[in-house]
Amino acid sequence: MARGDGKLTHDLIPGEKGPQDACGVFGVWAPGEDVAKLTYFGLYALQHRGQESAGIATSDGHSILVYKDMGLVSQVFDESALSSMKGHLAIGHTRYSTTGGSTWENAQPTLGGSDQGTVALAHNGNLINTVELRDMVDESHVGREIRGELARGNTSDTALVTTLLAADPDRSLEDAAMELLPKLRGAFCFVFMNERTLYAARDPYGVRPLALGRLERGWVVASETAALQTIGASVIREVEPGELIAIDENGLRSHKFADPTPKGCVFEYVYLARPDAVIRGRVVHEARVEMGRELAREHPVEADLVIGVPESGVPAATGYAQESGIPFGQGFVKNAYVGRTFIQPSQTLRQLGIRLKLNPLEHTIRGKRVVVIDDSIVRGNTQRAQVRMLREAGALEVHVRISSPPVRWPCFYGIDFATRAELIANGLGVEEIRASIGADSLGYISEEGMIAATDQPASQLCSACFTGEYPITLPEDGLIGKHVLETLPIEVRTGHDQSIDYTVDADGVGLGVATGGEGALLRP
Question: Which residues are involved in binding [4Fe-4S] cluster (predicted)?
Fold first, then answer.
């Protein structure tokens, strides 16, 4: 069901990539329920976390069936597909690629098999020791052919984990997980299953969210609490950092595979999570409103109207208006039906400034001094287009306020911002960025103000994309990046092949790292 090599996009500017979401994972164990449809609607609620591909695996206790394809959840599945997926447990995934390109071969859930049965796995996050894991796969298959997803061209860290979980035919999946999980480095929230049991695991840092819920006849795990509530499950608690959960006919079992060292991603509060999600007791919408209030305190301005860039900028705009006393209004109209499209605009349409996603509401903006609130600036192209649209719609002044600090560093834990060289704040100061995007003024929230709005201790949050302080040590050999498994030849282990340019990915795009972890990050 692959659709060629067409690229997916729903950007304001074709070809302009903003901060790309992590992934969404969902799992359910519920005898007597239609688990495929429960998973479908759970993934529907997590669509914002990944729009490249979607997949569901179900089991009836005897065999596992996987259905996955490129596209949105609503594009991949229909009634006939879901009705064919019988069973009492299921897992699902919505993907944005962070390791391995956006291809059908890399869609999840991934499959692996052994004499113990089949393993299906879905992953939210990004591992940073993928080359080490590939070496482990090679070592575990000495004298045996590597089969399954890896043999079919899967280049994701998820396929490596799936293969390793199924590598020992004499070990149960639960035992294999308890041995493997402590060896993984990076951010991971896994939901996985064999024919009989549902599992969920979260890395010791708890970088990405993962919640546990209860149905009348079963259990559910999901990346965000909103997905649990969508299908009528009650929220029980978060899966703890360093915890492995197993759910079967004997109930729920919890294992601790590592000591927790919480470092939750602060960008979940800024942008990634749905506003109705609750992370570590804090409602995301309330955090974003408070970020807007703090922006108004830190960067006041005389203006007539406050508007937010849909969707994540709107709560912060509400808070800015409340604190400043400047009226809040709708300045942009968002096309609610713009999903991902395989159709690329022609050069003529590009030159005309095709606006797939946002259009200004001219009668609201004309003659006004406008404060526009957005969640982040990555390259600056999107904000430049927004400012231009507002001026064309008649705004007298455009003052840009950003509810996160300047993004200066790439994320290796499940968000795909851009390479460091592409981050506008890496090379320019605030005044230079203001001039670049054409705004009358520009203000970013302080790191302290942003963190205070989350109601979390700063010591328990990861803000590496703003500070460059990575809580999970990056590999010293510099073998890291979205396309690392596609770039490296199969012979490469942990040494360097002088014929390989490790600073670029398979497409020739700079990875932001080179020969030597932190030192490389100091260079564009």
Answer: 265, 411, 462, 465
